[in-house]
């Protein structure tokens, strides 16, 4: 089992956590993604049972995709406020 955590401090933590949780559908086999906010921070946890070497790349690609979503969310929120 591999576990990867992404910790982010930002003023819109709750909005970002809720926006990311909507995206957690049709995940790869054996993958779990959890996101939660507290005060001004977001914690995203990706867990996956590693059965093949490529599963590690799947976790990395998922983390990259989440980081891209966070970047886009922050840009959108900054343009509105």
From TrEMBL:
This is KEOPS complex subunit. It comes from Saccharolobus caldissimus. It comes from the Archaea. NCBIfam families: PRK14887.1.
